[in-house]
């Protein structure tokens, strides 16, 4: 228990609630996931131990994913077949990641977190363009499990034949370990796997990824529940705050100009990542 | 692929989407689970403050839940309920695939459901 939590528990809870609302709002608005703000926020500003922060954040990712699914109009775009298939690997990897987080030192976890956070920010800045695969044949797992999809493009409805499914599955392994070990949604890695490797359209990849981050986080959270890392005194206010924040963010995403806002928030996340790295390396107190 | 067969293929792929009825069921289920979960956490929080409960030293899941209706136990129950939402969602999808006779997708969904719960059975 840290100093603020001991001296003024109500203020501590209120501030954690505020951080969670902001994390849920910003996370769903810029598509980085609440964990990118929650973990550094809890560790740097509230002195929460790294492992507790990771476990809390992973649980918050489940709530963020569910809150976004409460907003209607996403089912038509979500490719549940692809999501479920890829989740087999991502879910299992998340369990491995959570166990790893429990075993490695907090300082090492902090360094890995900062590096991965900065890489995730870089990934989210890339340009998205859909590849036309409509003339390619349906093959392998994509054919067997009916994974191909349809999305409205510039010339009406367009067929997208999914490619490189085994490669997509392998990248999901990395996304799952990142999620379970660091308490992040790893949505940008999942989108990378689906749109760049498997050639699924970007919009479908993003919505499908939202379904998937919840399942991956749930698998990792089960480990943290079992190992007693989830502290209800911290995870409680976080869960209560993240839901309205994420719903508001999902609602606002199509209503405001995101470009400059996105840049501001990405800068904040980058600064927090660097700050975390400097702190653990002893450069900053 | 000519225009007619492409149109046919588009229609076939659209039919593979989750139908509106199952989509609504899913949304209602998620809303119910998340709102109940948040309500339990808030109730637990209020009870723990009202009774000036001392925060548990050990956050062992079974130990905390055995102390129901303590504030911390209610909060933990709420968090657990929120955490199983993707599990419930996966089971709902499994029943949808079962209704469509897609055996491979049913197996994949059930396997994922097992993976999601597997963490709860890890030995400490």
- Overall pLDDT score of chain B: 87
Low-confidence stretches of chain B: none
Oligomer: heterodimer
**How would you spell out the order of helices and strands of chain B?**
HHHHHH
Gap from first CA to last CA of chain B: 57 Å
Q: Output the structural class of chain B.
A: mainly alpha
The largest contact between protein chains, plus residue counts on each side, is: A-B, 62 and 62 residues
User: How many individual domains of chain A?
Assistant: 1
Strand order of the largest sheet of chain A: 1-2
Average pLDDT of chain A: 84
Taking the alpha carbons of the first and last residues of chain A, their distance comes to 20 Å
How is the biggest beta sheet of chain A arranged?
Answer: 2 strands, antiparallel
Classify the beta-strand content of chain A into a percent band: under 5%
Rg of chain B is 21 Å
Stretches of chain A where pLDDT is under 50 for at least 5 consecutive residues are: none
Question: Gyration radius of chain A, to the nearest Å?
Answer: 19 Å
Describe this structure in words.
- Chain A is mostly helical and 285 residues long.
- Helix content of chain A is 72%, strand content 4%.
- In chain A, a hairpin with a 2-residue loop joins strand 1 and strand 2.
- The mean pLDDT of chain A is 84.
- With 124 residues, chain B is mostly helical.
- Chain B has two domains: 64 residues; 41 residues.
- In chain B, helix 2 packs antiparallel against helix 4 and helix 2 runs antiparallel to helix 5.
- Chain B is elongated, with a radius of gyration of 21 Å.
- The interface between A and B is large, with 62 and 62 residues.
Characteristics of this structure?
heterodimer, A: 285 residues, mainly alpha, two-stranded antiparallel sheet, 12 helices, B: 124 residues, 6 helices, elongated
């Amino acid at each position: 228990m840290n100093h603020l939590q001991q001296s003024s528990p109500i203020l501590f809870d209120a501030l954690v609630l505020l951080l969670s609302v902001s994390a849920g709002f910003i996370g769903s608005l810029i598509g980085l996931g609440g964990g990118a703000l929650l973990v550094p926020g809890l560790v740097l500003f509230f002195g929460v131990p790294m492992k507790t922060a990771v476990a809390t954040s992973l649980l918050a990712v489940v709530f963020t994913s569910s809150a976004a699914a409460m907003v209607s109009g996403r089912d038509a775009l979500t490719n549940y077949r692809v999501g479920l298939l890829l989740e087999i690997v991502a879910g299992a990897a998340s369990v491995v990641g959570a166990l790893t987080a429990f075993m490695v030192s907090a300082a090492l976890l902090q360094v890995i977190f900062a590096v991965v956070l900065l890489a995730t920010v870089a990934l989210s800045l890339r340009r998205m363009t859909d590849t036309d695969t409509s003339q390619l044949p349906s093959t392998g797992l994509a054919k067997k499990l009916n994974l191909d999809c349809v999305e409205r493009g510039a010339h009406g409805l367009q067929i997208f034949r999914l490619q490189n499914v085994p490669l997509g599955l392998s990248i999901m392994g990395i996304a799952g370990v990142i999620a379970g070990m660091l308490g992040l949604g790893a949505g940008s890695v999942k989108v990378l796997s689906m749109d760049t490797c498997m050639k699924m359209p970007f919009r479908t990849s993003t919505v499908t990824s939202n379904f998937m981050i919840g399942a991956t986080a749930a698998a990792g959270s089960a480990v943290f529940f079992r190992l007693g890392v989830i502290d209800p005194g911290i995870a409680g206010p976080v869960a209560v705050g993240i839901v309205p924040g994420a719903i508001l963010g999902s609602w606002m995403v199509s209503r405001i100009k995101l470009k400059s806002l996105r840049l501001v928030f990405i800068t904040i996340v980058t600064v927090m990542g660097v700050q975390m790295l400097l702190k653990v390396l002893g450069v900053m107190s | 692929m000519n225009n007619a067969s492409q149109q046919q293929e588009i229609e076939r792929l659209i039919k593979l989407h989750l139908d509106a009825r199952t989509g609504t069921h899913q949304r209602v289920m998620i809303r119910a689970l998340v709102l109940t979960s948040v309500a339990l956490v808030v109730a637990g929080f209020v009870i723990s403050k009202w009774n000036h409960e001392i925060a548990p030293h050990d956050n062992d899941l079974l130990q905390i839940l055995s102390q129901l209706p303590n504030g911390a136990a209610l909060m933990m129950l709420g968090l657990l309920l929120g955490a199983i939402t993707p599990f419930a969602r996966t089971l709902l999808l499994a029943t949808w695939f079962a209704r469509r006779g897609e055996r491979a997708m049913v197996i994949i969904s059930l396997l994922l459901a097992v993976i999601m719960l597997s963490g709860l059975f890890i030995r400490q």
